[in-house]
Design brief:
This protein is of the alpha+beta class. It has helices spanning 5-29, 209-222, 264-268, 280-284, 287-310, 315-337, 347-370; strands spanning 40-42, 49-52, 57-58, 71-78, 89-95, 104-108, 111-115, 130-131, 142-149, 152-157, 160-166, 180-183, 194-203, 233-237, 246-247, 257-258.
Length: 371
């Protein structure tokens, strides 16, 4: 009896397709930790929080009560020896629902950086960073002050100016610093910082150099509570609770920072976050977006080949079926990645995977016509 090579070929395609799906799930869901713990601990012998690179603290979903066009952020930090702060690590940021934040203070390459999406950059490249000239010393506490507004941005270390530059705000947007306060990580949980945070203060104006120098002396002598006396202070967190799931501001109108046991709650809010309209092209045509397209092309080719071999349907119907199935698969992967501590989920990945699925159908149908 002669074997049915048509059916054998179809079985081979199905087996290959299932293996491909398994590989795609393994690659995107590794390391399979679906219950990530929030890596934040209270310091035992002094005020402060320790972040182990997998931790985050944040205010609730209601926007903070203050909105300001100029801002100063004061952080009392200690990066311990042995901390794994490789690549960009976000220490503090505002989060207003967009993937590109209004303001970020972080560490990259041993230096403190400052970034705002409101600033005009050449070509609107969202990742252009403003960094300190000197490295951020480990193993001791430092008072870091970042100011942005009134045509300039600056970073001070222990009261001394480390770097300063002129800045220009976009004319087409309403540049106001507001939103949820994020500490120790990015909103998507991808850029966690390693180190101690012993105080956080936010001002609705640009602090003067003499005020920043005075802060440095007062904080090391009397603690961060002294910062509340400076005009314009809208939030001040001394982190002196020592335990619990909240860090309260000593200023009545400011909301408490939540310290949940799991990192999942905030990550849910970032699934459908989009980059701001002024920086969106960088996300849509960046390397990650193109990689996500190519990642789903083999899926589209195999799935459409199976359909075209088994059913007598046209190109457009196959395109709709495969692209819709690809979008469902991508949505499932992005949803599962919400629970993974080393992954992030954004809607742009779903768009890219849909495009890749459609391109796979086009390639398979072209090869069929050629054959």
């Amino acid at each position: 009896m002669m074997p049915n090579y048509r059916n054998l070929s179809l079985r081979f395609l199905l087996a290959t397709f299932l293996v491909l799906l398994a590989v795609m799930l393994a690659v995107t869901l590794y390391p399979f930790n679906f219950f990530p713990a929030n890596g934040v601990q209270w310091l035992s012998n002094e005020p402060g929080l320790y972040f182990n690179g997998q931790g985050i603290a944040y205010t609730d979903q209601v926007k903070t009560v203050f909105e300001t066009k100029a801002v100063s952020v004061v952080l009392w930090l200690n990066e311990r020896f042995g901390s794994k702060n490789w690549g960009p690590r976000e220490i503090f940021s505002f989060y207003d629902g967009f993937a590109s934040p209004p303001l970020v203070v972080g560490q990259w390459g041993g230096r403190i950086f400052l970034y705002s999406r409101f600033e005009k950059n050449k070509g609107d490249r969202w990742y252009k960073l403003f960094r300190t000239k000197n490295r951020f010393p480990r193993g001791k506490s430092h008072l870091v002050t970042a100011t942005f507004g009134e045509g300039a941005k600056a970073i001070y270390i222990d009261g001394e100016l480390n770097n300063k530059s002129k800045t220009e705000i976009h004319d087409t947007i309403n540049a106001k610093f507001c939103g949820r306060l994020i500490l120790g990580n990015s909103p998507m949980g991808q850029n966690g910082w390693w180190g101690e945070v012993s105080g956080l203060a936010i001002y609705n104006r640009v602090l003067l150099p003499e005020e920043i120098l005075k802060h440095s002396r007062e904080v090391f002598q009397k603690g961060v509570g002294e910062l509340a006396e400076t005009p314009g202070c809208v939030a001040l967190y001394p982190f002196d609770e020592g335990k619990g799931i909240e860090a309260k501001s000593i200023l009545g109108k400011s909301r408490s920072l939540s310290i949940p046991t799991s990192r999942i709650p905030l990550i849910f809010a970032t699934l459908f976050s989009l980059p701001h309209k002024d920086m969106r092209s960088e996300f849509l045509f960046g390397a990650d977006f193109l990689k996500n397209i190519l990642f789903f092309v083999p899926y589209g080719m195999l799935f459409s080949t199976i359909i075209l071999r088994k059913y007598t349907i046209g190109f457009f119907l196959a395109f709709i079926v495969v692209t819709f199935a690809g979008s469902l698969l991508s949505l499932t992967i992005e949803f599962l990645q919400l629970f993974l501590p080393t992954r992030s989920s954004v809607i742009n990945d779903i768009y890219a995977n849909m495009i890749g699925s459609g391109l796979g159908v086009l390639v398979a149908y072209t090869l069929k016509l050629h054959r």
